[in-house]
């Protein structure tokens, strides 16, 4: 995944314009941290550097065996396992579950939050620290993509992501046994790399399933239509780059 360096801080991970980086919500004395949906392990390694040590345990898990393989290759000093967030194999053993850019891929947030609650310690101190797409995330891009697929090819794309409002996510947290410490949405316009090519590269990566069945010509036609529709809103001509219309939901909650 390509992220713009301006929004990525090597110490704190993804830096929100709203304020503090997500990692600052991880208590400094946390002795065990599960990085849920670790991908290729970049943030797991940062958690390990900040919180790891002889008596501290940091583990990255991801449902994709390919991601875990890449994480083990790229970060040989960190520990990784394959695990599905909705069926975590842990019985009240983690002080912190940390998760960045994962929950919007998971349709059932109640199953997810029950699983996370069961993985956290049961003494009233276990903490979930997470950030993912909020309601309205990439709405301009998704609307243009839905229209292009429909108008060019007669394809109805449907819902691909789970981007909840903070109020809904907070009520799910409470229903699953958490107390909400912080739950809020914020705008995080995110510059993409690679100039004009950046938007189509991003769409092909994040909406891979929509493009798999299409021929090269069909892909190009749809992507060209999307670029034409969104360039008034998302093309930053001064810096010659696309700026994706991200909205994030950040939540910090304690398992009680
Ligand atoms: C956008 S990446 C984020 C990676 C990493 N957290 C980061 O911030 O760099 C999303 C990751 O979530 C993982 N994922 C999606 N659904 C999952 C699930 N049900 N359980 C565990 N991981 C999941 C994907 O395999 C992918 O590696």
Description:
By secondary structure, the chain is an alpha/beta fold. Helices cover 35% and strands 23% of the residues. The chain has one domain (5-255): Vaccinia Virus protein VP39 (Rossmann fold, 3-Layer(aba) Sandwich), CATH 3.40.50. S-adenosylmethionine binds at residues 1, 37-39, 42-43, 62-64, 67, 84-86, 100-102, 105-106. S-adenosylmethionine (SAM) binds at residues 1, 37-39, 42-43, 62-64, 67, 84-86, 100-102, 105-106.
Briefly note the structural class of the backbone: alpha/beta
Report helical residue fraction: 25-40%
Shape from CA axes? globular
Helix/strand order, N-terminal first: EEEHEHEEHEHHEEHHHEEE
CATH superfamily: Vaccinia Virus protein VP39
Which sheet architecture does the biggest sheet show?
A: 7 strands, mixed
CATH class: Alpha Beta
Named CATH topology: Rossmann fold
- Which value, in Å, is the CA radius of gyration? 19 Å
The CATH architecture term is 3-Layer(aba) Sandwich
- Beta-strand share of residues: 15-25%
Please supply descriptive tags for the structure shown above.
256 residues, Rossmann fold, disordered N terminus, 7-stranded mixed beta sheet, globular, binds S-adenosylmethionine, alpha/beta, single chain
Task: Please summarize what this structure is.
Helices cover 35% and strands 23% of the residues. The protein has 256 residues and is of the alpha/beta class. The protein has a single domain, classed as Rossmann fold.
How does the SSE layout of this entry go?
Elements: E1 8-9, E2 13-14, E3 32-36, H1 42-51, E4 57-62, H2 65-74, E5 79-82, E6 96-100, H3 109-119, E7 127-133, H4 139-153, H5 166-175, E8 178-187, E9 190-191, H6 197-206, H7 208-211, H8 216-234, E10 235-236, E11 241-244, E12 247-255
Parallel strand pairs: 3-4, 3-6, 4-5, 6-7
Antiparallel strand pairs: 1-2, 7-12, 8-12, 9-11, 10-11
Helix pairs in contact: 4-8
The protein binds S-adenosylmethionine.
């Amino acid at each position: 995944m390509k992220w713009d360096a301006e929004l990525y801080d090597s110490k704190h991970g993804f830096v929100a314009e709203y304020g503090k980086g997500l990692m600052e919500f991880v208590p400094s004395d946390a002795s065990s941290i599960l990085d849920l949906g670790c991908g290729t392990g970049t943030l797991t390694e940062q958690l390990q550097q900040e919180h790891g040590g002889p008596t501290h345990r940091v583990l990255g898990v991801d449902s994709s065996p390919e991601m875990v393989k890449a994480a083990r290759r790229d970060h040989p000093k960190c520990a990784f396992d394959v695990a599905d967030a909705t069926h975590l194999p842990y019985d009240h053993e983690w002080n912190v579950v940390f998760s960045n850019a994962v929950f919007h891929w998971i349709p059932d947030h109640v199953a997810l939050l029950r699983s996370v609650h069961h993985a956290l310690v049961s003494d009233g101190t276990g903490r979930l620290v997470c950030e993912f797409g909020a309601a309205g995330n990439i709405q301009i891009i998704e609307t243009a993509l839905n229209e292009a697929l429909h108008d060019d090819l007669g394809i109805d794309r449907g819902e691909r992501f789970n981007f909840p409002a903070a109020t809904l996510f907070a009520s799910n947290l409470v229903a699953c046994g958490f107390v909400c410490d912080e739950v809020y949405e914020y705008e995080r316009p995110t510059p993409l790399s690679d100039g004009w090519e950046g938007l189509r590269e991003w769409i092909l990566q994040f909406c891979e399933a929509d493009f798999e069945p299409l021929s090269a010509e069909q892909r190009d036609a749809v992507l060209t239509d999307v670029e034409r529709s969104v360039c008034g809103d998302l093309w930053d001509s001064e810096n010659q780059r696309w700026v994706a219309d991200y909205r994030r939901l950040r939540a910090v909650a304690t398992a009680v």
